[in-house]
């Protein structure tokens, strides 16, 4: 248990970095599975290191784990009957089926009805069975059917098309006798109270499928009560209301839109088009909060009106709602890729929880006997349990958002002067001419600058050498008040690795004004990168308080054209003026 | 005073002392108090306490009035209103609930830092209850997790108990009685 900065509202109850739970928020639920008032954590583990498992945690321990037949797509705990003791059943959606567990034992399996099969495909396989066509023809015909495809191919045909030529024979022999079936796959699952809003009321299962349908199942008989269709395959779902009264299903689909389904309509009522694909979907009260792939958190009303949007510091990994009815507190927990979990109430960031690893699933609710428990699993399979302090208070830290308070202070803007009015009138009247004049001056300025630059380059007047063999840089510093000055020249070889040799420095100055101790100096070998200070002393001989320019040349031995030239504006000798 | 005490003892009048019984919900406070009562006054069924209840029992020299506080989260803010009256505290811990040991510690820290308790030398008796449960932590482990060694300015004592059978309770109550007696004299 380590200290958690910024999470002063939470107690670190448990952290097991090697709990081996690889799951997502859709496969986690809290439920009182033993009916003793202590909630357990049910996890549909997608495996990774081990197999796919249904795990149950209680307190800090793993209470049970049982193998799952297929990869879990979603998990929900719900009451399916009114029998005492009130123990909820667990529904695990995997593949085309929902497996219902009661008392952690398999109880019922519901499989979605098969979809319609392509008639042509059926004919082709029929012919194969009768031995009329060989595998090459089969492959060609299936390919052509797939291209026309008003009804998509079955899984078997798609599998066949993906096989190598060598493996096709065995595959056909194995499968040709069975009839073709096309099964859709469940993508998400949720629960919907049937007729009462009670905490322990009987709930229906709501299932979203790959074939873009949403089914509502009767909890006792497991028959389809209602079927609704969407424009695209659903990926996340939130359900509220009661089946017999009025309900709303908010579905995030793979096409990046959110659709809102209502009772008495098998088509979506409203559509929210998002700027980026949704990663997490949470309902807070009557609003929908969506975390998107463009690192934003957006809120919409039930009717699809956008309320607010917040930019997040990192991509969203998962989301969950934090609902504390006893304190009237509702917020959204957002797991981020930078190993943080942010808590938002509306658009205000309330607190940040640092986690040792990126979070893959979040679940908030009653665990054990504690109402405000936050359970998170990490990407590496760790399990973190945090408990909300009884005394925790969340304050809106609304500092960064919205207009600053200074904005509402009225500035004392002075009245418009006559000059201002005149200028404005002039600008309005002859704006074009002013612009032209400005542009011409700008061009002239550019020309003058370019000319000066070319001249400097031609006469090596720059303090940077343009020669490729001796790339040098120099700057000069004059120190002192006068009449004696110290002149320091910092020479640097800017080449990558080649040293420069046989250089000298010479000065050109007015000999009636200045006297120099050594007007010609040899420079040692210059190692690349290092700065070599070359120092000399200059004495001003004039007492008239005037100054002049001293020109510095860096020369290569045996060449008359200087490599570098620098003009040093000497300061006025203050020592003389004082006299 | 000593003579008066003895006289009171002969007459069967015992010193009254107010004790607070605190701890998380489901830790066994009411069960412990029930066990300490005379067997003819014991209740058969223990239900979660709402708010608080006042119970009385006697030991060889003292007459205890126990404020049995409810441990449920929503009633825990009632505790602090009784700190002033309490001359001793019984703090009950569910040794089998490892997950909520941090919550117990948090509540204990809040208790110890409360102005009504902080500067008083109130004896605190800890009952590490539910020792009969299979995975229960030992009393040493419980005192480690609650950082009891940091309590320097108050006398405290921890007992491993099983309130269903009544094991360990008498030892704790004897200690409490001695502490209260030494406080008085």
User: What is the assembly state of the chains in this entry?
Assistant: heterodimer
- The total count of strands of chain B amounts to 6
Could you tell me the mean pLDDT of chain B? 88
Question: Which class best fits the helix and strand makeup of chain A?
Answer: alpha+beta
Helix segment tally of chain B: 6
The CATH class of the domain at 472-569 in chain A turns out to be Mainly Beta
Q: Greatest contact pair?
A: A-B, 19 and 18 residues
Strands of the biggest beta sheet of chain A: in what spatial order?
1-28-27-26
- What is the arithmetic mean of pLDDT of chain A? 86
Give the helices and strands of chain B as they follow along the chain.
Answer: HEHEEEHHEHEH
Q: How far apart, in Å, are the first and last alpha carbons of chain A?
A: 78 Å
- Strand order in the largest sheet of chain B: 2-3-1-4-5-6
The low-pLDDT segments of chain A are: 1-6
Main sheet characteristics of chain B: 6 strands, mixed
Strands of chain A, total number? 36
**Helicity level of chain A:** 10-25%
Subunit structure (chain A): Part of BBSome complex, that contains BBS1, BBS2, BBS4, BBS5, BBS7, BBS8/TTC8, BBS9 and BBIP10. Interacts with the C-terminus of RAB3IP. Interacts with CCDC28B and ALDOB. Interacts with PKD1.
GO molecular function (chain A): patched binding; smoothened binding
Subcellular location (chain A): Cell projection, Cilium membrane; Cytoplasm, Cytoskeleton, Microtubule organizing center, Centrosome, Centriolar satellite
Keywords (chain A): Acetylation, Cell membrane, Cell projection, Cilium, Cilium biogenesis/degradation, Cytoplasm, Cytoskeleton, Membrane, Olfaction, Protein transport, Sensory transduction, Transport, Vision
